[in-house]
Amino acid sequence: MKLELTDRNLQRYHLTGTLVVVVVLALALAGSLLWIGLTEYRQITQRFEQAQQKRLHDRLQSEMDAAVGYLDFLQARTGMVLRKALQEKTAMAFQIATAIHQHEHGRHPEAEVKRLILEALRPQRFFDDRGYFFVRDLQGNGLLQPLNPELENTSLWDNHDDKGHFITRGLIAAARSSEAGGFSSYRWYPPDNRLEMSDKLAYVRLFAPYGWAMGTGDYLDLWHAARLKEGIERLRAWKFGDTGRFEVLGLDGQILLQPPSPGDEGKNYRQLASPEEQDIQRRMLALANEGGGLMEYAWRRQGSDIVDTRSALVQRFASWNIVLVATLSSREIQATIDAEKASAWASLSSRLPYAGLVAVLAILGAILASALFSRWMIGLLQGYKRDLDAHALALEQKAGELHLAGHVFESSNEGILITDAERRILAVNPAFTAISGYRAEEVVGKQPDLLASGKHEPDFYRSMWQTIRETGSWSGEIWNQRRDGSVFPELLQITTVRSAGGEVLHYVGTFLDLTERKEAEDRIRQLAEFDPLTGLPNRSLLRDRMAQAMARAERENRRVAALVLDLDRFKTINDSLGHAIGDQLLQGVAARLRQLVRHSDTVSRMGGDEFVVALTGLEHPAQALPSARKILEALAAPFQLGEHELLITPSIGIALYPDNAGDPETLLKHAEAAMYHAKNQGRNTFQFFTPEFNHWVTERLRIENGLRHALARNEMRLHFQPQVSLATRRIVGCEALLRWQPTEGELVMPDRFIPVAEETGLIVPIGHWVLEQACRQLARWDAEGGAPIRMAVNVAVPQLRQPDFVDSVRQALQQAGLAPGRLEIEVTESVLLDKDERISRTLEGLLALGTKLSLDDFGTGYASLSYLRNFRFDVLKIDRSFVSELHRNEADIKLIRAIISIARDLSLQTVAEGVESEAQLEILQELGCNLGQGYHFSRPVPADQLGELMRGEREA
Length: 956
Ligand SMILES: Nc1nc2c(ncn2[C@@H]2O[C@H](COP(=O)(O)O[C@H]3[C@@H](O)[C@H](n4cnc5c(=O)[nH]c(N)nc54)O[C@@H]3COP(=O)(O)O)[C@@H](O)[C@H]2O)c(=O)[nH]1
Fold this sequence. Notes:
- An eight-stranded mixed barrel has the order 23-24-25-26-27-28-29-30, surrounded by four helices. Strands 2-1-5-4-3 form a five-stranded antiparallel sheet, sandwiched between helices.
- The protein is of the alpha+beta class.
- It folds into five domains: 82-223, PAS domain (Beta-Lactamase), CATH 3.30.450; 239-329, PAS domain (Beta-Lactamase); 414-519, PAS domain (Beta-Lactamase, 2-Layer Sandwich), CATH 3.30.450.20; 530-689, Reverse transcriptase/Diguanylate cyclase domain (Alpha-Beta Plaits), CATH 3.30.70.270; 707-955, TIM Barrel (Alpha-Beta Barrel), CATH 3.20.20.450.
- Strand 1 (134-137) and strand 2 form a beta hairpin.
- The longest helix has 98 residues, at 7-104.
- The mean pLDDT is 89.
- It has 27 helices and 31 strands.
- Bound molecules: ligand LFPHGCPZ.
- Ligand LFPHGCPZ binds at residues 721, 735, 737-738, 749-751, 754, 767, 770, 794, 796, 856-857, 877, 880, 913-914, 916, 933-935, 940.
């Protein structure tokens, strides 16, 4: 059935449905109440029935306990009664015998008296005529056997029962046991059964006059049977309640007591006429054999149709092999149970109308409530429907908007990428595909970092996501990679979409491909910053770069050089060969200049024929020279421009930051001034900005040029300064010190030319020459018979970097025929700070060779003590700056003391430099310094002078 849904029908359905539910619930409630009442009624009556049954059973049990107690009593008394009777009877026999003996003794012969006594006893009968007296002599002969006279005067000594008991011996023993006599048990055939013996008890006394055992006995069973009978009769009369009685069954099934049918007594139950009766007795017997218990049975009185339901407690009385049944009619409790049921039912019935009324009222109340609820609900539903309508309308609008958004998403020129909160891509639009080259199915489910170009450091992305987390969005330019591997710039905006609860749902990335814009910007920048003709940075870019280089130079304590160069007579070429050739020439010059400079340097065209080369990171002004020279050399080669071979020369002006100017503009201005100065000097040359600089540079150039030829021109000399033992004041060594005596000019001291030699690498051949000469000189002194002093030779860092340095030392020693230990290689502290492994290798090689190692100028550099431990030095030279003020400065004393102490710890010899006075010498002596070197002993002198000194010493 299809329900028609209208506003009205909806109300009806709701009301009807509610009513149905309410009525069903009310009926269920009433039914439940009724069911609960009935259950309660059933439980009450059941409990009561059980209680009554228990009472009935308790009653039966208590009656049974009393009956069993009574029978126990009877059974226990049986033996006692028998014993008493036997004693009485024997006493009677004893009286008879005694009386006859007393009366007849002496009057008749003894045999006669005996006969009289025996005959008097012979007819005596008792115990229902079974009882008689017997007499035996103590030898076991039968004297009186009333029932078996044939046994009289025979020996019964060995007579025994079915269990092997010697009967006569037992009787005699009992008679002799005490004066009063005694009991003896044995077995014998009862009167009615000659086949099977049963237990018998006899009482015997010793009749002393004749030594007779005299007594009587009887069968125990018979006494028990009599007691049982007595008990049954008692139980017959035992009544309890209205219907309570006892019944007794023999274990063999014989009915012993059956008060309602005494005619059945003595019968076996199997002989009963009624099968029901038989069944009852059989069940009772079976229950007794199982240990007894309660049973119920239906009993019909003989000749009556009334069936009585009875409860019976069955219990076996083992001593007499009988079963006791205490039985009571259930009628006795049924009336009480019925009365209780009636009362419970009346109580329930009285509550039913109230329950009905409650149910009816509940139904009515529920109907009313449901009607009201229904009205209220309908109101709510109508309100809800209005909301739904409004919502549907809103959804319709939203759908329209979404449709629009979808359209925008699909048709947008901006790439759009939507991810979930875990940044897995959910959707991308066609523009994304167009820009990145990735189709949607290739990126969905992946992370956006598949677009990463590798151009940004991880920090960039970390900071980007940090911003997104903190502000909800990020925008900026970023480099990404397309599917084809090309890298492109994009303007990216990432926005976080959150739920109403603030939970991140999505990230939306929109981006614009900036490739074209960048290219345009690059073109603009190119135009703005580069010279269109040569492609070199223009003045503006040069200025920027120079500013950056200056800032860096300031931080690093370096210099920036601006080399402004102008092409000599370019105007003539331009005017004569035309602008095209002029332009080609400028391009050619630009190309050559570009090849000359390092990546960090800049070649720029300022306009016309003027170029600037900016050199960065210079340590000193002279480092600008090689570049200036290279420019001159590079431009010296002719330019082949079509059919024209052109020669061009530049004039170069050099200015240095920070020496000549503090900003790019001033620096360029000064360099230009220097350039004009160079032009005035005759072109194809360079000029530094200041005269002092010019002088310094010129001087340096002169030294450098001179040094290149110094060895060839034999201009180098060695002087030697002695090293004196402070303990003995004798010369123990000397230091070779280089001097340069140019052919034309005055003597040049090492401070001026060694740095130039080191920078230009000329120190390597010069140093080699020093080594050879020093070794030769030492050998010469040896040959003159001098003491075997040690020769110290200064070695510069560039020498130590030479892989063959150790070999060259070995060679020098071998050539001079010296032991390696005679040579001391002096290095400065800077060696220790140099990380170059070639240096350490050389030092190791020298140590392996066996030369001594000396650390020069100790304390002036930055070497820490730990370096001393890293290299195995032999000698530590204390710099003369500490020695010069030694006699005036306490701090210097402390310092030298510390140095000497460290040196001693490391087993180093100490040499104090610059000892100029006796006072210094004494202090050094006191401090424990080993050797001294200085003007106090001798200035550095030519070899022959030192030879003289040593000779003097020897002769002194
Ligand atoms: N790589 C090489 N370096 C060398 C070589 N020859 C010398 N040098 C180094 O040049 C520096 C200057 O040497 P020099 O001008 O010869 O000065 C030495 C002494 O004249 C000077 N000295 C000695 N005693 C005194 C003194 O009492 N007073 C005083 N004012 N000056 C004195 O000290 C210089 C020796 O110094 P050092 O070498 O540190 O022992 C100098 O640093 C040399 O190392 C060379 O062949 N190769």
